[in-house]
Design goal:
The chain is mainly beta. The protein has a single domain (17-131), classed as Electron Transport, Fmn-binding Protein, Chain A (Pnp Oxidase, Chain A, Roll). Helix content is 13%, strand content 46%. The chain contains three helices and twelve strands; from the N terminus they run αβββββαβαββββββ. It has helices at residues 4-11, 58-64, 77-82; strands spanning 16-17, 19-25, 28-34, 38-41, 46-52, 66-71, 96-98, 104-106, 111-123, 126-138, 145-148, 151-154. A hairpin with a 5-residue loop joins strand 7 and strand 8. It is globular, with a radius of gyration of 15 Å. It binds flavin mononucleotide. Residues 18, 32-36, 49-52, 55-57, 80, 84, 86, 147, 152 line the site of flavin mononucleotide (FMN). Flavin mononucleotide is lined by residues 18, 32-36, 49-52, 55-57, 80, 84, 86, 147, 152. One of its GO terms (molecular function) is monooxygenase activity. Pfam families: Flavin_Reduct. Keywords: Monooxygenase, Oxidoreductase. Residues 11-154 form the Flavin reductase like domain.
Length: 157
């Protein structure tokens, strides 16, 4: 069996983008950073992400049943850190806009999707969440924020 640290090191060789998953709940705004986001199906439009059982934020998003995905751009490292730090005040100190469904997205996001949770599969220590994308927009043409080798960075110029 693969040793966990080595498994993570191998996966770190695979470069991903970073998204924020945010939602409006009856108790206020909530959200967290994900790199396990991926497209799944074009027709119907489906996306997926994996949420750790240890996350204290994910159960609130799951209970809401819907969320916005915002794709982070270069220069948004701090926003990513805030949205991955347990207990951080996540929505202070940044400009936010609302999606059609009313979820908050950073004003400078590269693009966003409004999603409705369709199916959740239990998968080891994570939940594999499949959601339908119901609305969305491309909002900026800048470069992406990328996650590689455990580092949050921009693409080399
Ligand atoms: C670049 C990056 C990618 C992340 N991707 C995921 C992910 O795909 N799934 C996940 O459950 N947590 C992921 N996290 C960690 C969560 O964002 C973090 O554990 C969570 O926000 C902690 O706060 P919470 O306990 O309030 O949920 C990622 C963190 C970073 C910095």
């Amino acid at each position: 069996m693969l040793e966990q640290r080595y498994f993570r090191d191998i996966l770190g060789q695979f470069t991903t983008g970073v998204v924020l998953v945010t939602t409006q709940t009856p108790r206020g705004l909530t959200g967290m950073a994900f790199n396990s986001f991926t497209s799944v199906s074009l027709n119907p439009p489906l996306v997926a992400l994996c949420a750790a059982h240890t996350s204290s934020t994910w159960p609130h998003i799951r209970a809401a049943g819907e969320f916005a995905v915002s794709i982070l751009g270069e220069g948004q490292e701090e926003l990513c850190k805030t949205f991955s730090t347990h207990g951080a005040e996540r929505f202070a100190g940044h400009a936010w806009e609302r999606t059609h469904a009313g979820h908050p997205v950073p004003a400078d996001t590269l693009g966003w999707l409004d999603c409705r949770i369709e199916t959740i599969y239990q998968a080891g220590d994570h939940e594999l969440v499949v959601a339908e994308a119901v609305e969305g927009a491309v909002t900026d043409s800048g470069g992406p924020l990328v996650f590689h080798g455990g580092r949050i960075t921009a693409l080399p110029a």
